[in-house]
Amino acid sequence: GFAADSEVEIEVALNERGFTGDALDAPKRPGTLRVLTLGGSVLFNRRFTERFEAALAEAAPVPVEVLGAALRAHTSWSSVHKWDLLAPLGFDVVVVNHGINDLYANHVAPADFRRDYGHLEPWYVRGWLLDRSLVARTLYNELLWRAPERVPTGSGFRSAEVLRANLARLVDEVRAAGATPVLMSFAW
C-alpha cells in the first residue's frame, strides 16, 4: 500500500521503489540537495515531481535529487510510515502537503473511525505479524478487513486531531534527522 503499481505508470513515470523521481541510494553524495515529497495526489498528479525537480535544479547551485513519495489517496498517517522507512536516505528538505484525504477519513460512523485510518484501507492497519508476513498481510487484506459503510462526515471532523498529531510528529522527526520540513497548504 505504500507504493504505486504499474497501472499508474501510464500517467506518471515510476522508479524502482514505486515512487516518482529519483530512486535514491544511501548515502547521499556530498554537495547534493536531497528532497522528499510526502502527500496525496496534489504532489503526485500532473508529473509534479518531474516539474518540481526541474525547477529546483534550475535554481539550486548544487545537484538536486528528489524522491516523490506522495501518492494518490494517501494521508498524513501513510506519510508518517513512509518517513520511518525513507528517513535513512538522508534528506535535506521534506515537503509535506496533506489535508484533503485526511478530511475524507471522516466519512464513517463515529464507531468505525480509527485514529490509524484503518477504516480507509487494510494496509493502514499495522502490526508485528502483518508487517513481517506476506501470508498474514494477504489473508488480512483479502479475507478479514471490511470497509465500513460510507457516512458523509459521519464522525464529525475527528481527523483534524489526527492530522495535527501526524504533522507535528513529521515535523519533529524531520528536524531531529537534520532536515528542514516544509508544510504546504491548500492555498498553494
Give an overview of the whole structure.
- This protein is α/β, with parallel strands linked by helices.
- It contains 6 helices and 5 strands, in the order E-E-H-E-H-E-H-H-H-H-E.
- The chain has a 5-stranded mixed beta sheet, sandwiched between helices.
- Helix 2 packs parallel to helix 6.
- The two termini are 27 Å apart.
- The model has no long low-confidence stretch (mean pLDDT 91).
What's the β-strand tally?
A: 5
- The first-to-last residue Cα distance is 27 Å
Helix content: 25-40%
Treating each run of at least 4 consecutive H or I residues as one helix, how many helices?
A: 6
Strand content: 5-15%
* Helix and strand composition category: alpha/beta
Order of SSEs, N→C?
EEHEHEHHHHE
Mean model confidence by pLDDT? 91
Q: Radius of gyration in whole Å, from Cα?
A: 17 Å
Keywords, separated by commas or semicolons:
188 residues, alpha/beta
What's the short story on this structure?
With 188 residues, this protein is α/β, with parallel strands linked by helices. The chain is 33% helix and 13% strand.
